[in-house]
Write a structure and sequence with these properties.
heterodimer, A: about 110 residues, B: about 110 residues, six-stranded mixed beta sheet, five-stranded antiparallel beta sheet, about 0% helix, globular
């Protein structure tokens, strides 16, 4: 598959579980992003990585822990989440931080029970 | 930080009519304004964008206008078709080193055949 892929596409987890979301981009980009999309709210930027270095943590609770092992892969590790964390989590990439267009993945629909 | 307001939240038109979605932004240093279309269950996709040194840009049936003085920009869709039905998001890119995108709340556009 080309572009930006995310796995899993759907995830249901309990508040005490630990899970990880995975994003992979096949575009040769150097910047990657995590966004949260909740119902009736704007897309919220969570984290920004450039060349595997985190350049922004947008006041995200520590129960969300990102990891970027290389410029093609981005993870979001989840632990002790709350029901209000249920949302669509979107990954995006761009050529670099200066590039304008961001390409989005299909998202992971997360439900916290 | 940047604040982007988008109106209306829902818009219903008849096929063939025009649709206009408006956004305002707060940070005068913002320099790039993309519009994304998100069909139900799919990823957001860039449909058109405009930079701060341009007042208007057109691509077939869609156009975007920017008024830097008033800090607002608009999406215009002419000759709407049922396949234009989707959620449309505006965004503004600020002047930070990593160019953070702040999104509007989204507009649900429904085009009735």
């Amino acid at each position: 598959e080309t572009g930006v892929t995310q796995t899993p596409r759907h995830l249901v987890m309990g508040m005490t579980n630990k899970k990880s979301l995975k994003c992979e981009q096949h575009l040769g980009h150097n910047a990657m992003y995590w966004y949260k999309q909740s119902a009736k709210k704007p897309l919220e930027l969570m984290f920004v990585y450039s060349l595997e270095e985190r350049v922004e943590n947008n006041s995200v609770p520590s129960r969300f822990s990102p990891e970027c092992p290389n410029s093609s892969h981005l993870f979001l590790h989840l632990h002790t989440l709350q029901p209000e964390d249920s949302a669509l989590y979107l990954c995006a990439s761009s050529q670099d931080l200066r590039s304008h267009e961001q390409y989005f993945g299909p998202g992971t629909r997360l439900t916290v029970t | 930080g940047e604040n982007v307001e988008q109106h209306p939240s829902t818009l219903s038109v008849q096929e063939g009519d025009s649709a206009v979605i408006k956004c305002t932004y707060s940070d005068s240093a913002s320099n790039y304004f993309p519009w994304y279309k998100q069909e139900l269950g799919k990823r957001p996709q860039l449909i058109i964008d405009i930079r701060s040194n341009v007042g208007e840009k057109k691509d077939q049936r869609i156009a975007v206008t920017l008024n830097k003085t008033a800090k607002h920009f608009s999406l215009h869709i002419t000759e709407t078709q049922p396949e234009d039905s989707a959620v449309y998001f505006c965004a503004a890119r600020d002047g930070t080193s990593y160019g953070k995108l702040t999104f509007g709340q989204g507009t649900i556009l429904t085009v009735h055949p």
